[in-house]
Amino acid sequence: MTIPIIDLSPLWDSSSTGLSKVAQEFTYAFQEIGFAYIVNHRVPQSIINEVFCQHRRFHALPLEEKNKIRLNQWHRGYLPLASYQIKSESKSKGILVEDTKVIVKAPNQSESFIINHEHFEGPSDLKEEELYNRFIQGPNQWPHGMPDFREAVLSYYHELEKLALELTKIFFAASQTDFNRFAKHFERPSIGFRMLHYPPQPSPIPEGVFGSAPHCDYGFITILAQDDVGGLEVKTPNGEWISAPNMISSNGESAFLINLGDSASKWTNDCLRATPHRVINRSGRDRYSIVFFWDPQLDFPIDTRDLGTRWCPAEQKPNYEPQTYGQHLKKLLSRNYDELYKTIDGTSNKDDSKVKN
């Protein structure tokens, strides 16, 4: 089994025919394997090159410098090497495919710089400091004395916001549902942006030690850019782990790799896949990747019935009860980061379903 390639060119003529063609390819990819490369995405290669240049600059800083912006209570900042261990089970189409408690023996062998959406979610009459008290709402942190780093990150971030919105429209076309009904929930999306550095792992690699342990993403749509080092692997429905390296398209641009998260799979009643993936850096070189997590607003209700009958016929009961995206996210973050959160002032690690959003 191979990872499909989706050419976005038909989208750019703004025709319903073009959207329909891409939506068909999207449906096939996410029913079959749960990952796809996208090409002709219109993100300038110069912006991709520059953000990776700055990515390497940041992670080359001394540890004490990076720790000046260590991850805060709003899940923003620097996350040191081996800071947390994956604990969530990995399910695909509702079926357990990776028992993390058995497989994973050590924290992830990676370090990250993390920012999230730079807008606030909540009633307009709340003061800024009150908005900071809402789940995962707060200021980003930036390394000191690196204005070029911030500029490159935000340039890339804003390009991917535009791309992610187009992918969202494809998702709704695949669901045979009018995107305009849901557009307001993506006006102030929940965005996670993570720049990961994976040092080379020693050989032989101990059992149960990963750069990134097997997991499914939490949210809606993930867009990945990566260097040429390799190490990312995707688990196919037949249980085989296959390589998902960087790909350069015929026009010389870096392709993006996209996948759906757990909330998207649940929303489609497990008809579209959230697929386990992992990183093992056997290369002897440093690996760099950038992950863009694109999700609806935290108060958005994930309800299969809202998507119509494409994924769940009217006479069939949905597999999941409705819940907000914020409730879904907090449960998973609390499970995987609970030990880390105990070390951060002001952070709640409770698995609380009553999320303020």
From TrEMBL:
The keyword ATP-binding does not apply. Keywords: Iron, Metal-binding, Oxidoreductase. GO terms for molecular function: metal ion binding; oxidoreductase activity. Residues 185-296 form the Fe2OG dioxygenase domain. InterPro entries: DIOX_N, IPNS-like_FE2OG_OXY, IPNS-like_sf, Oxoglu/Fe-dep_dioxygenase_dom. The keyword Metal-binding applies. Transmembrane segments: none annotated. PANTHER family: FI07970P-RELATED, OXIDOREDUCTASE, 2OG-FE II OXYGENASE FAMILY PROTEIN. Belongs to the iron/ascorbate-dependent oxidoreductase family. This is Fe2OG dioxygenase domain-containing protein. It comes from Adineta steineri.
